[in-house]
Design goal:
With 739 residues, the protein is of the alpha+beta class. It has 10 helices and 37 strands. It has 4 domains: 2-113 and 122-237, Phosphatase 2c, domain 1 (4-Layer Sandwich); 268-366, no CATH class; 388-469; 476-736, TolB, C-terminal domain (Neuraminidase, 6 Propeller), CATH 2.120.10. Helix content is 34%, strand content 28%.
């Protein structure tokens, strides 16, 4: 069995540079077998190609340097040398490659023969490692396996751990290995790869991959080495394509100097900074050795001339002051103070003008060499100042990049630790780790660095947080519009919906008209305008009789009979004339009202003309009665409070009930849905755009996130609890609750 290898490089017209590399063992190196590499990075003013070539050369030279070490030891030593090369690169200040460096490396060598029941089956050992988002795939028996999963991450945060993991295993005849760049799995689907490898040579597979790439017209750059494990008799058809394949064996103990610094092509700005620095150093030496003696001599002569000029100017000034004093003495005696100050100011201007003129004259008298040296010194000083500022900015930028890299690495580590904690159901630890990871991500975002990696990691943290909080995010394509109430209710936007007897109902708060939405989406009025009963505010379904029980603002109650489509006012004695009914719930033929004005729940029993009773139902002295915002009944009475807490009562007394907490907590604008037909508690939290679902003992079952753009007013649930109906604006949407 021998490897049949071919390559495919499709990088034309992209900002990415890279190549594929196939190395055959030379004489004396057969024990180490074949070495393969696929690499890509950004062009970076052509420095990217130098980085790729240098790293791969170091891998090749170190791997084949000492065949006596064995395959795995040589492979790990080669990866270590590549890490050292990249570390030296960072020490030189070249960090741009760290966010786009993707390499896959594989070593393939003969292994001992394994004896089967009938004959000997040859095997080969495969060792693989990746950097960044490099990809290695193995196709065996119509199945495709990703060998490089979890081996490396992008961006590179620590160059000494660029290649940090090695995966090893055996390959068999007719196995096919794909060693590809970061976009390989995006360009080619798994089923296409499995279809291509069926008893095909590497050359044929590569040709099919090229054809598929051209047919798809994919803009993503991609490169791959295809290795087909062929039986010995086909070994003559094996192709190895590489500019570095034909080489002489490397003698053991040769001085390789693998860590020789790279010569990196720099941009014009970097070249200018480097040139200014060198000029500053050279100018300093020349000034000290050659120019400084002349400057001293010129300065001595200039100082002498300046002293003479200053002396002459001083005499002139004194003479001028005396003249001014004589001319203005009379003015001072008569109190002409303003004129004296004006003349005094004019005198100082003359002094300054004479002094400037004297300096100019003295400079003109300087020797020509002194003038040239002075101008040169000024220019060099300016250039030196600019260089210092630019270097300081570069140092600050490097520190920011290093700090952002560390934060990003730490955030990724905490996110992975949170995933592990979830596996062991350690939810508190996972929550703490995710909170820390979010803080680190926020700090990296403020720097404006690693934007793509930050966005990817933030999405990963959100996904883990969703698993922790049992969140399901509803995409727009996962919702269906049942009907639009706005086609019938035009005066005032609807705020309530009810599901009963297989249909959805609502009401027009301005006219009390009942509206039905059928299963076919038809929206129609099913009652007429009313008078003398007040306007509907809240309501509930009465499952036993298939009715709607509606509270009015008079206050009072009305019932809409779904079977007869008759709306009737009910006789009921409210707790007081100032009663404000905030919530209505039913159980069997009983109705429960929460009156916020009285701060209690009142229970009523059905009679022929209405409801009787109305005694205060809550007897507990510790129950918070004044902050109830909604309630429901399934035998127990559940109350939702403005602090987001749900409480459970039986016969007027609170029973032990503890909800599993959610973050953020339920808002004070939430509503509750629970009745005798439902096995779960549904809470609509419109502020946080979600529906939270608990079971009736308080365990969190699910959170349905409805989207930031949603305008949710109310919800209803089908009797089988497989459909969630959402009133979004005036439209009613349906969302499947099936797992």
């Amino acid at each position: 069995m021998v490897p049949d290898a071919d390559e495919l490089v499709l990088f034309d017209g992209s900002r990415v540079v890279g190549d594929t590399f196939i190395f055959e063992p030379a004489s004396g190196e057969a024990k180490l077998g074949w070495l393969y590499a696929v690499a890509e990075t950004e062009k970076m003013d052509y420095a990217g190609k130098e980085i790729v070539d240098t790293v791969v050369q170091s891998l090749q030279r170190e791997y084949y340097r000492d065949p006596a070490r064995g395959v795995l030891a040589s492979f790990e030593s080669a990866l270590h040398q590549a890490n050292l090369i990249l570390h030296d690169l960072v020490e030189q200040g070249v960090r741009e490659w760290m966010g786009s460096f993707h390499v896959s490396v594989a070593a393939l060598a003969e292994a001992n023969k394994h004896v089967g029941e009938n004959n000997e089956v040859p095997h080969m050992t495969l060792h693989v490692s990746t950097a960044g988002e490099g990809i290695v795939l193995l196709s065996r028996a119509q199945k495709l396996t990703l060998l490089s999963v979890g081996m490396s991450h992008s961006p590179i945060l620590d160059p000494l751990r660029t290649f940090s993991s090695v995966a090893s295993g055996l390959v068999n005849e007719r196995d096919v290995i794909f060693i590809g760049t970061s976009n390989f799995d995006q360009v080619y689907r798994s089923d296409d790869l499995v279809r291509f490898v069926a008893d095909q040579s590497a050359e044929t597979i590569a040709m099919q991959l090229r054809q598929l790439f051209e047919d798809q017209k994919r803009p993503l750059p991609v490169a791959v080495v295809v290795i087909a494990m062929s039986p010995d008799q086909t070994g003559g058809q094996r192709r190895t394509v590489s500019a570095m394949t034909n080489r002489q064996p490397i003698s053991v103990g040769a001085g390789l100097s693998p860590r020789k610094p790279l010569i990196i092509s720099r941009s014009i700005g970097k070249k200018v900074i480097l040139l200014i620095g060198r000029l500053a150093v050279y100018a300093g030496k020349q000034t000290k050795q050659v120019i400084w003696p002349y400057v001293k001599e010129g300065s001595r002569r200039s100082g002498k001339a300046l002293f003479n000029v200053s002396k002459t100017a001083g005499r002139s000034v004194q003479s001028l002051k005396n003249k001014n004093f004589n001319k203005n003495s009379l003015g001072r005696e008569t109190g002409s103070k303003g004129k004296w100050l004006t003349m005094r100011s004019a005198g100082w201007k003359v002094v300054a003008s004479n002094l400037l003129r004297a300096i100019i004259v003295s400079v003109r008298k300087l020797p020509r060499s002194s003038k040239i040296f002075g101008v040169t010194a000024v220019l060099l000083t300016i250039l030196l100042g600019i260089s210092v500022v630019l270097l300081q900015q570069k140092r600050t930028a490097d520190e920011q990049i290093q700090q952002a890299s560390e934060f990003l690495h730490e955030a990724r580590t905490k996110k992975e630790a949170a995933e592990t904690a979830l596996i062991y159901d350690n939810r508190d630890q996972a929550r703490t780790l995710l909170a820390d990871a979010k803080q680190l991500i926020d700090r990296v975002q403020l720097s404006g660095l690693y934007r793509e990696q930050v966005a990817e990691l933030a999405a990963g943290i959100t996904a883990v947080q969703d698993r922790l909080d049992k969140v399901t995010r509803v995409a727009q394509e996962e919702t269906t519009i049942v009907g639009d109430l706005g086609t019938v209710i035009t005066n005032q936007a609807p705020t309530k919906i009810f599901y009963v007897n297989g249909a959805l109902y609502s009401f027009d708060a301005a006219s009390n008209v009942i509206v039905r939405v059928g299963e076919n989406g038809a929206v129609e009025k099913v009652s007429k305008n009313t008078s003398g009963i007040g306007f509907f505010t809240v309501g509930s379904t009465q499952e036993a009789d298939k009715n709607l029980v509606l509270a009015t603002d008079e206050p009072g109650l009305a019932i809409y009979d779904i079977k007869t489509e008759v709306l009737q006012k009910q006789e009921v004695q409210m707790p007081s004339e100032q009663s404000v009914v905030v919530a209505v719930a039913t159980f069997g033929n009983r109705v429960y009202l929460y009156d916020s004005a009285m701060g209690n729940i009142y229970g009523y029993s059905k009679t022929l003309r209405g409801y009787s009773g109305g005694n205060p139902w809550v007897t507990s002295t510790t129950f918070p009665r004044n902050n109830v915002i909604d309630m429901g009944v399934d035998g127990y009475v559940y109350t939702l409070h403005s602090d987001g807490v749900i409480r459970k009562l039986l016969k007027g007394e609170e029973v032990d009930f503890e909800m599993e907490q959610v973050e953020p907590k339920v808002s004070d604008q939430a509503s509750l849905e629970i009745n005798e037909n439902l096995r779960h508690i549904y809470v609509l939290d419109p502020v946080n755009k979600r529906v939270v679902i608990w079971d009736t003992v308080g365990h969190l079952m699910r959170q349905v996130f409805l989207g930031e753009e949603s305008n949710v007013k109310d919800i209803a649930v089908s009797e089988d609890e497989l459909k969630l109906y959402v009133l979004d604006g005036t439209k009613i949407l349906v969302i499947s609750l099936e797992e």
